[in-house]
Amino acid sequence: MTEERYTSLEQLGAQTGAPESPEAARLERVSNPAQGNDFLIRFTCPEFTSICPVTGQPDFAHLVIDYVPGEWIVESKSLKLFLTSFRNHGAFHEACTMMIGQRLVDEIAPKWLRIGGYWYPRGGIPIDVFGQWGECPKGVWVPDQGVQPYRGRG
Amino acid sequence: MTEERYTSLEQLGAQTGAPESPEAARLERVSNPAQGNDFLIRFTCPEFTSICPVTGQPDFAHLVIDYVPGEWIVESKSLKLFLTSFRNHGAFHEACTMMIGQRLVDEIAPKWLRIGGYWYPRGGIPIDVFGQWGECPKGVWVPDQGVQPYRGRG
Amino acid sequence: MTEERYTSLEQLGAQTGAPESPEAARLERVSNPAQGNDFLIRFTCPEFTSICPVTGQPDFAHLVIDYVPGEWIVESKSLKLFLTSFRNHGAFHEACTMMIGQRLVDEIAPKWLRIGGYWYPRGGIPIDVFGQWGECPKGVWVPDQGVQPYRGRG
Amino acid sequence: MTEERYTSLEQLGAQTGAPESPEAARLERVSNPAQGNDFLIRFTCPEFTSICPVTGQPDFAHLVIDYVPGEWIVESKSLKLFLTSFRNHGAFHEACTMMIGQRLVDEIAPKWLRIGGYWYPRGGIPIDVFGQWGECPKGVWVPDQGVQPYRGRG
Amino acid sequence: MTEERYTSLEQLGAQTGAPESPEAARLERVSNPAQGNDFLIRFTCPEFTSICPVTGQPDFAHLVIDYVPGEWIVESKSLKLFLTSFRNHGAFHEACTMMIGQRLVDEIAPKWLRIGGYWYPRGGIPIDVFGQWGECPKGVWVPDQGVQPYRGRG
Amino acid sequence: MTEERYTSLEQLGAQTGAPESPEAARLERVSNPAQGNDFLIRFTCPEFTSICPVTGQPDFAHLVIDYVPGEWIVESKSLKLFLTSFRNHGAFHEACTMMIGQRLVDEIAPKWLRIGGYWYPRGGIPIDVFGQWGECPKGVWVPDQGVQPYRGRG
Amino acid sequence: MTEERYTSLEQLGAQTGAPESPEAARLERVSNPAQGNDFLIRFTCPEFTSICPVTGQPDFAHLVIDYVPGEWIVESKSLKLFLTSFRNHGAFHEACTMMIGQRLVDEIAPKWLRIGGYWYPRGGIPIDVFGQWGECPKGVWVPDQGVQPYRGRG
Amino acid sequence: MTEERYTSLEQLGAQTGAPESPEAARLERVSNPAQGNDFLIRFTCPEFTSICPVTGQPDFAHLVIDYVPGEWIVESKSLKLFLTSFRNHGAFHEACTMMIGQRLVDEIAPKWLRIGGYWYPRGGIPIDVFGQWGECPKGVWVPDQGVQPYRGRG
Amino acid sequence: MTEERYTSLEQLGAQTGAPESPEAARLERVSNPAQGNDFLIRFTCPEFTSICPVTGQPDFAHLVIDYVPGEWIVESKSLKLFLTSFRNHGAFHEACTMMIGQRLVDEIAPKWLRIGGYWYPRGGIPIDVFGQWGECPKGVWVPDQGVQPYRGRG
Amino acid sequence: MTEERYTSLEQLGAQTGAPESPEAARLERVSNPAQGNDFLIRFTCPEFTSICPVTGQPDFAHLVIDYVPGEWIVESKSLKLFLTSFRNHGAFHEACTMMIGQRLVDEIAPKWLRIGGYWYPRGGIPIDVFGQWGECPKGVWVPDQGVQPYRGRG
Ligand SMILES: [Ca+2]
Ligand SMILES: [Ca+2]
Ligand SMILES: [Ca+2]
Ligand SMILES: [Ca+2]
Ligand SMILES: [Ca+2]
Ligand SMILES: [Ca+2]
Ligand SMILES: [Ca+2]
Ligand SMILES: [Ca+2]
Ligand SMILES: [Ca+2]
Ligand SMILES: [Ca+2]
Ligand SMILES: [Ca+2]
Ligand SMILES: [Ca+2]
Ligand SMILES: [Ca+2]
Ligand SMILES: [Ca+2]
Ligand SMILES: [Ca+2]
Ligand SMILES: [Ca+2]
Fold first, then answer.
1. Which residue of J18, J49, J57 is in closest CB contact with A56?
2. One digit per residue, pLDDT tens: chain B, 154 residues?
3. B132: which strand partners?
4. Where is this region: Disordered (chains A, B, C, D, E, F, G, H, I, J) (predicted)?
5. What single DSSP character describes residue E22?
6. How far away is chain C from the Cα of D16, in angstroms, using its nearest Cα?
7. Fold classified for G31-134
8. Nearest-CA residue of chain B relative to H149?
9. What's the topology of domain H22-134?
10. Residues A64, G2: Cα–Cα separation, whole Å
C-alpha cells in the first residue's frame, strides 16, 4: 500500500538506533502532498530531555512545533529520532529550543515555522521560549498552541 | 413535517450500508436555508479511523470541519457515511485530512471551508493538520475550535 | 420600586402560559438604559429543545446570544417564553438557529446581533451554527463565547 | 512605612461602616504611581449583590473591572465599599453594570475602562453585560477576562 | 539488551499484520516480573472500534483495563493487535466489553481483572459497561479510573 | 448479522413515533448477554425535559442511570423513547426522577439500580435527586457518576 | 395540573416579599413522594450572603445541602426565601452554617441531613464548614459534593 | 453586634503587627458554637512561606487544615498571624508542616486534626506532607481536600 | 561543558545568600544566543511575596514576565534572587509590579517587555496589573499568558 | 542554620554528578522528624526517563511515590539523583516501576510505601503501574494521587 513518494525513506519502517547527537541525526523529508494550498502541520512532543551545560543534570521540556510546508514535509519518525538525539546534548533552554527550530528550517525549508518550548521549572521558575522563522503566508489558519500555563501548587 | 427541499435526499431516513471507499461515498446536499446572510456551520467528528499506508495498522483522529455555505449545505448523514468510508482507506495524516477538505469543497462549493485534523499520537508525537480553502467572507463569525492540546501524562 | 419604563410589560411579573409556537410568542422590549454608550448583552440559554422535522424526535441545543442594543433591549422573560415556544416546532439545526436570530433582529432592531447554536450530537456528530446580523459598532467589547468543544469520550 | 500619597485617604486603615446607597459611597483615589507608561489594572469582584427592582428579590453577580489609569488610581477599599453599597439598591442587570462603570469613569477619569458583569441565572438564563468607556491607548496590553461561560448541568 | 524472558515473543519487535478477527488474534504473555508482591497494571485504550451487529455501522469506545497479574503479564503489542481485531467484529456494547475482559482472563489467568468500556453516544445516550472477574487480593492499590463523564453540550 | 436474541424487538431498527406519555411508552428488554458474571451498565442521558406541574413551564435535567442486570438488559432505543415520553408530563423533580427509576425496576427486574437526576436551576438553586433500588451484589464495580457540581458564575 | 399535596403551600406560586430575618422566614414542606424507598435530595445554593457580626461587612458563601427525607420534603421556594433572610443577619461562618442545618432539621425532620458551607476568603484564608445531623440510613447513595477547593492565584 | 464570646480576643479587630517567630505568635480561641454536634472546620491557606534551613532560600506551600473542634475553635485572624510568623523560620517541609499541626493541637485541643502541606517543587520534585492527630469521631463528614496534583508541564 | 559566555556570571553555580532589598540584588545577563531572529522568553514566577506598606502584612503574587531580548538575556538565577529580594520590601501591588518590569528594562535593555502581576485577594478582591515597555518587534510570536481568572468559591 | 541531623549528608548542598546506573546511585536518609505520629510523605516526579530494553528507544513516565516513614525519611536530592540514574537503564514499565519502589523499601525501611507509575503511551496505549509494600498503619491519611487519566485526543 506504500506510495512511491515514501520509498526513499531509510528510517521509517526500519530498525533504527538512537542517534548519538543532534549532528548525527538525519531528518528525512517527503514531498508535500498538498502543495497547491498552504496548510499548517503541528507536532506535539511531550517527551524531550537534554542536559544542563553547567551542572550536567537533565532538563525536560514539552515542545510544540508548527510549520507551513513548502516543497517538503518532515517524516515524523526521523523527527522523533532527531529529538531523541538531544538526550546527551548540553545546551541552555533558549539555545536548545532555537537550535531545533533552526535545524528544521535548514532541512525542510518551510514557508514558515515556529516552536514553543515549555520547560520544566528550575529554581521554582519555568522558562518558555517562543521562536519563529519566516513570515506566515496569508490564508493559513494558525491555531493557538493552548499549552496550559505553569501554576505552582494549590 | 418534511420540507420539500429534503425530498431528493436518498440516504437520510433510509436504510444505508457503509460505503466501501471514499470514492464510493456519496455526499448529498440541500439548498442553504439562510442564503442572504453568510454564517458558519461546524461539524465535530470524534469518530474517525483510517489505515496507515505503510504498516496497515489503524490510525484514529478527531476532526472538526467549519464552513460558510454558498448555495448548498451538506446533509449530515451523508457526511457521516463519507467519513465512515475511510475505515479501510490507506493514507497519511496530512494527505487524509486535506483530501476530506478537498472533497467537501468539490461537492458543496462553500464560500470558505477549513478542517482541523487532531490525530492520536504515534511514536509519542501526535500530528495536527490545519487546512483551509477559499477566503472567509467579511462579516462571518469564526470561533476558535478550542480542541484541548495533547499533553502526554501527569 | 418598579421604574416607569417597565410598566408596559405584560408578561414579566404576570402569570403566563407557554406560547404554542414561535409565531404565537410575543417578544417584549424596554428602552435601552445606556443609549449613549454602545455595550454588549449576552444571554446564555442551556435549556432549548425543538423537533426534528423529518423524524419527529426531539432535538436539544445550548444557545448563546450576543447583541448590541439600539433603542431597545429585549425583556428576558419574554425571551425565555419565545425560546420555550420552539418545543413543538419542527426545523433543522441551521434553520432553527438562524430563525431565532432573525426574529430578535426584527423585533428589537439591535445595532448588531449574533447567535451561537451548539446542538447535541446526532449520529455521533454535533453541529454548531454561528450566525450574525449587522456590523458590530466600533468600540464595543465582544468576548469569545468560550463554549467547550464537543469531545466524544475518554 | 506609609507613603505620603496615601495620607489623604479616609477609609483605608480606618473603621468604616457600609455605605447605605451607591450615592452615599465615597470612591477615593490616589495619584497613579506609574504615569509615564500606560498600564492596565484589573479588579475581580466575585461578591456582588443588588435587588431586583420589580420583585425585590436579591440578584448576584461576578464583576471584573479593567482600566487604564490617567492621573489617578482608585483606592481598593473604597471600591469595595462602593460595591457593597448596592446591597439594597434596586436596578436591572444592564443598568446596574453600566452604572458602576460610569461612576468609576466619573470619579477617577481613566483613559479607558471596561466592566464585565456576569450575573447568576434567572429563569434558567444568565445575562452577561460588557460595557466600556473611552478608547484604549495604543501600547496597552489587555488580556481576555477569561470568565468561564455558564453551562447549566451535566 | 533484551532479557531472556522476552525471547519467546513472536509479535513484539516483528513486522505484524492486523489479525482478521478476535479469534485470529494471539495474546502473548511473559512471566510476571514482580511475583512476590501483588500489584496493579492499567492499560488505557482510547482507540477502539467495532461494528454494530444490527446496522453494520461502526461503534467507538474508550477502554480501560485493570488487572492484578498472577504468573503472567500480557505483552502490550499483542494486546493492541487483539483490540485491533474487533475492527470488523459485530457485537453490542455490553457483549463486546465483557468478551474482551473474558478473553484476557482466559489467556493470562490474572488474580483479578476489570474493564471499563466507555462508548460513544448513540441516540444521544452513551453506554458505559463495567465488568470484573475474580476478587481483588488484599493489599492491592486500585485507583479510580477517573474517566470524565459524558456531558452533552454547553 | 443480527443475533436471534434481538428478533423480538419492535422499536429498534423500526420507524417509531414519540410516545405521548410515560404510560404509553414501551420499555423493551433482551436477555442479559453475560449472566454468569454480575456487571454494571450506565446510561448517561443529557437530553431530558418535563413540565412543572404548578407553572406549566418546562424543566430540564441531566440523568445518569446505573444498574446491574438480572435476566434482562433494557434495549436502549426503547429507553430513549421512554425518556422522550416525559416531554409533556407534569411532575416535580423528586417525583419524576424516582418514577423513572421505579419503572425501570418494574420492567427489567435488575439486581440493583440507581438514578442520579441533576436538574437545571430554578430560583438560582438546582436540585439533585439520588435514588436506588435493591442491594448491589458483592463483586460489582460501581464507579462514581462524577457529574460536575453546579457552581453559579465566576 | 397541580397535585393536591401542594395546595396548602402559601409561598410557591404567590407574590412573596423577602423575610426580614431567619426567624421571620417560614420553611414549608410537602409530603415525601417516595416514602417507601430512602433517597437523597441535594440543594446547591451559590447565592448566599450574611453579615459579619464584628465588622458589619457582608460575607458570602456557596452552600450545598444534602438530606434524606422522612415524612416531609422541603418546598424549594420557601428554602430560597429562608436563605435570603440571612441578608441582614450577623453571625460567624461556623455558627451561620450550623444554624441553617439545625433549622432544616427542626422543620422537616429528615432521617439525615448534612450541609457544606464554602465561604469566600477573608484575610486570604477561606473557611469551609461541614456539619451533619442524624445517621444516614443504610442503602442510601450519598455522592461527594465535589466543590472545587480554593486555590489562590496562578 | 459582637457577641460576648468574642470580647476576650486581643488581635481580631485590633491593629496587629506580624509576630517575629512561631513561638512569638499567639493563637487565640473562642468557645465552640455548636458543641452538641461534632462538625468539621477547614482552613485553606495558599499564602505560606518559610525558609530553607540549609540554603536560606525561601520555600512556599499551600496548606489545608481540617479539624473537629472540642471545646474551642481557633480564631482565624490569630491563625493567619501564626502562619505569617514562619516567614523567617528555617525548617524542612516535613518538620514545618508537622509543627503547625502540633501547635494547633496543643492550643485548641481539637477532637481530631489533620494538615495537608502541598509544597512548591524543588529540584523538579514537589513534596506533599499529610499528618493527622487523634481519631476522627464517628458521624463526622470529612470531605477530600481535592488539591490538584502537581503535573510539570504540557 | 560550560560555554565561555557564562564565565562572567557570579551568582549562578555559586553559593549565594538572599539579597536584602531590590536595590541590593544584582541582575546578571549573558549575551543573547539567537540574536539574528527575534524571539520571546517567558518566566513564570508563582513564588513571590512582598509587604503591604500600610499594614506591614505580607502580600503574595503570581508573576509572569515576557520579553524579547536585544543584546542580552537575563540569567535566571539572578532573576530569582532579585524576586526574592522583595520579601521585606513594602510597596503597593501596582507599584511593585511596575517596579519589577522597569528594573528588568533598565538592566537588560530588551526590545520589548511585559509583566503580568496576579495578586492574591485582599478584601475579597484580587488585583491584577498588566504593564509593558517598548513596542513588540514585528514577526515575534506572543502567546496569551493564560493565567486562570480568580473565581471566589463554588 | 543547618540542624545536626543533616551533617552526615554527602550529596545535599554539594556539587554532584549524575550517577551512571541505579546501582551506582546512593539514596541517603535522615532520621524521621516526627516519629511519634505516623504521617505520609508524597514525592511527585514528572521528570523520569529510562530505556526500552528491546528497542533501545527512550521511555518517559510521571511517577508519584507515597510512604509512611519509620525511623528514616529519604533525603530528596539523593532521591532525585537516584531517579536520574535510570536515564541509561533498560527495563520494562512494570519492572522499572516496581524496582524503584523496592529500592526505596530496602534503603529507608518505611512502614508502608506505594508508587504510581504513569507511563507515556506506546502504540497508542499508555500503561500505569500501581505497586505497594507493607500495610499502611491505622490512623494515617492517604489521599488519592489524582493523576488525570490519559484521554487520547478531542
Ligand atoms: Ca485559540
Ligand atoms: Ca498558588
Ligand atoms: Ca475562541
Ligand atoms: Ca508531562
Ligand atoms: Ca476570549
Ligand atoms: Ca476521544
Ligand atoms: Ca486571552
Ligand atoms: Ca481516585
Ligand atoms: Ca447541558
Ligand atoms: Ca470515581
Ligand atoms: Ca463522588
Ligand atoms: Ca471523588
Ligand atoms: Ca471527596
Ligand atoms: Ca492564547
Ligand atoms: Ca461564585
Ligand atoms: Ca481523593
1. J18
2. 456 666 777 787 677 778 999 999 999 999 998 888 999 999 999 999 999 988 899 999 999 999 999 999 999 999 999 999 999 999 989 999 999 999 999 999 999 999 999 999 999 999 999 999 999 999 999 999 999 999 999 9
3. B114
4. 1-22
5. T
6. 28
7. GTP Cyclohydrolase I, domain 2 (3.30.1130)
8. B154
9. GTP Cyclohydrolase I, domain 2 (3.30.1130)
10. 60
